[in-house]
Design brief:
The protein is α/β, with parallel strands linked by helices. The protein is built from ten helices and eight strands. It has an eight-stranded parallel beta barrel with strand order 1-2-3-4-5-6-7-8, surrounded by seven helices. α8 links the parallel β6 and β7. α1 packs across α4, α2 runs parallel beside α3 and α8 packs parallel to α9. The longest helix is centred in the middle third of the chain and has 21 residues. 40% of the residues are buried. It comes from Paenibacillus lactis. Keywords: Signal.
Length: 297
């Protein structure tokens, strides 16, 4: 048996025993890191031919964290080169995955596929080629059950998040998640707390999707989740949008451009600085941000 496969099998067995006995596996309490600047890279195939260009742009823009989507069609050597190059430029890379249906227990095999791939990749990569975290984007509010049977859906979501986080921590990796800014307005089925507080409590880091185009509105949308993260001792980034949106021009910086966005993000940083959880900003997403930058807007 190959050495990395043996390590992976041992890891899976140990994690399985811990989950069966109800014990939690955690790499340690999260400590807020100031001045993070993150972006999402969903189109992973780009790293096959444009790794130097992507890292160059990210470095020039002050990015020090990239959420890179897992794509099984991209060979591991491309990930290894990209992560090694990112590290040489002071940029962490977290493996990215997720979809709305990841909230459904019937779709848990998708979580397994994602985490199995990550475990095997980590076992086979050199230290400087490994991911330094896991990041997920699960937005079940886009599923029809959010309107027809929300309590059932939230319970399914909770179950899958517990499973995901337990397995992720078995890999000794912190795990983060995207969270909508209005999630604090909904409570758990048992009414014990807000959905956002429960979710923040599970993850090590969150990115609050406060998609607006002025600093005051961005901060005001993120404030409730920031306060919850403060109380729970978790890291929180505030995320903004650069893609064109059919929900209104106020959602995104697509119309205003990159220079205006950077001005507003500096103001957000100052406004949110009093929160112990505040760790920086995240810009969604690499391709649209790059296109906006190159358009000169």
């Amino acid at each position: 048996m190959k050495k990395h496969a043996l390590r992976f099998l041992t890891l899976c067995l140990a994690c399985g025993l811990l989950m069966l006995t109800g014990m939690s596996v955690h790499p340690g309490p999260a400590k807020a890191q100031s001045h993070l600047k993150a972006t999402w890279l969903w189109h992973t195939s780009m790293i096959q031919s444009s790794a130097d260009d992507i890292i160059g742009f990210a470095s020039r823009q002050g990015v020090n964290l990239i959420y890179l989507q897992m794509n099984q069609d991209v060979r591991p050597e491309h990930y290894r080169k990209f992560i090694r190059l990112a590290g040489e430029n002071g940029i962490q890379v977290h493996v990215l995955g997720g979809a709305s249906n990841w909230a459904l227990e019937s779709e848990r095999h998708r979580i397994d596929t994602f985490l199995n791939w990550t475990a095997e990749y980590q076992a086979d990569a050199a230290p400087e080629e490994r991911f330094t975290g896991i990041h997920v984007d699960i937005e079940p509010h886009t599923l029809p059950q959010w309107k027809t049977d929300r309590d059932w859906l939230v319970e399914q979501w909770q179950s899958n998040v517990r499973y995901l986080v337990s397995r992720a921590h078995c890999l000794d990796l912190p795990v983060g998640a995207d969270i909508t800014f209005w999630l604090h307005t909904y409570s758990l089925p048992d009414q014990s707390m807000t959905i956002s507080r429960w979710m923040i409590g599970q993850f090590d880091q969150i990115a609050i999707m406060a998609y607006r185009d002025t600093a005051a509105n961005i901060y005001n949308l993120a404030a409730a989740e920031l306060k919850e993260a403060d109380a729970l001792g978790k890291e929180a980034l505030i995320a903004v949008e650069t893609k064109s949106s059919n929900e209104g021009e106020f959602i995104t910086f697509y119309e205003e451009g990159v220079s205006f966005m950077e001005e507003q993000l500096l103001k957000v940083d100052a406004m949110a600085g009093s929160h112990s959880s505040f760790s920086g900003v995240a810009i969604h997403e690499y391709r649209s941000w790059r296109a906006l930058y190159e358009s000169g807007r």
